[in-house]
Amino acid sequence: MEGIEHRTVEVNGIKMHVAEKGEGPVVLFIHGFPELWYSWRHQIVSIASHGYKAVAPDLRGYGDTDAPTSINSYTCFHIVGDLIALIDSLGVDKVFVVGHDWGAIIAWYFCLFRPDRVKALVNLSVPFIRRNPAIKFVDGFRAKFGDDYYICRFQPGVIEAEFFHVVGSADVLRGLLTSRKTGPPIWPKERLSATSMAIPPLPSWLSEEDINYNASKFDQKGFTGPLNYYRCFDLNWELTAPWSGAQVKVPTKFIVGDVDLVYTTPGMKEYIHSDLFKKDVPFLQEVIVMEGVGHFINQEKPDEISNHIYDFIKKF
What we know:
Pathway: Secondary metabolite biosynthesis; terpenoid biosynthesis. Belongs to the AB hydrolase superfamily. Epoxide hydrolase family. One of its GO terms (molecular function) is epoxide hydrolase activity. Its EC number is 3.3.2.10. InterPro entries: AB_hydrolase_1, AB_hydrolase_fold, Epox_hydrolase-like. With 316 residues, this protein is of the alpha/beta class. It has one domain: 3-Layer(aba) Sandwich (Rossmann fold). The chain contains 14 helices and 8 strands. It has an 8-stranded mixed beta sheet with strand order 1-2-4-3-5-6-7-8, with helices on both faces. α3 links the parallel β5 and β6. α2 crosses α3 and α6 packs across α7. It is globular and about 50 Å long.
């Protein structure tokens, strides 16, 4: 991995695995679902070559980081707390933050709670999610998209046994990472068998080696920890009531693909290109929509994303 180093750090009561490379200002990379530090492998090398220290942890529940058993141990406060402890351990006051998918959601919370620790933010795929004080997150998703919307299906239940244990980690990852289906993401029960899951050939940007590395980690840990992020959506809604209507006040660049399943979910595109996004994130400086690009944008277009990140953070 071209000199990427690995170590374990004690943070916030857990042991966290961290991949890192380079010296200089810290760029903190926050991965999404179902990913690991590994999804940033290209950006780690690229950003380090520009004179930065790239730091990419496995979030709690993932990879070689501890996975607490309680669902309630996966709130946005736990995850942000882990990351604050991580940057404290690096001995730095402020970092650049880069997030994708669930990592983007965590990055929005990070910047909302602790803007004093952030120089600038580059977020991919998932825009800021406005907190509606009148309805909980999952209830809102269910009202819009029905019971088979993936976030509703990922709530406590038997999803692991129905699907992940039937198909296996490698095929789950192949199916999710290679999907070009646009939003909203629907996860019907009738899909839950190995024979019913159509898995296309791997694209040029994803190898069997990539799949096998990720699958080996999910085989060890399972998917329950990662799913607990979705299962804390409503708890996050309750706990963040004091921040209802609060703004993310850090310099921000947002990047999304035009066939991303989030971007193509009804209402998302309209929000991203509206004044509301700018109202929620008043220091939003750029919105980039990449043509013909899907959800796993940092892996699908690694060089372009690395350049977008560097072009933005070098201003600060």
